[in-house]
Design goal:
With 59 residues, the chain is mostly helical. It has one domain. It has 3 helices and no strands.
């Protein structure tokens, strides 16, 4: 996937990483498959936290 390759390439540039760091973010480049796995796991984690705390989405 071209977009993914371009993003990963830009995240290897020190000037880009430095700018992102100054914004308070951490650069963790991931390929699409790894990123999807991360998102699925993170969603499951936060879903459980919300359910355990009795938090419900507002309409």
């Amino acid at each position: 996937d071209r977009l993914s390759k371009e993003i990963l390439a830009s995240l290897k540039r020190s000037d880009v990483v430095e700018r992102i760091d100054k914004l308070g973010f951490t650069v963790e480049p991931r390929d699409p498959v790894t990123f999807k796995s991360y998102i699925v796991q993170d969603l499951a984690t936060w879903t459980k936290i919300a359910q355990d705390a009795g938090i419900q989405a507002e309409e």
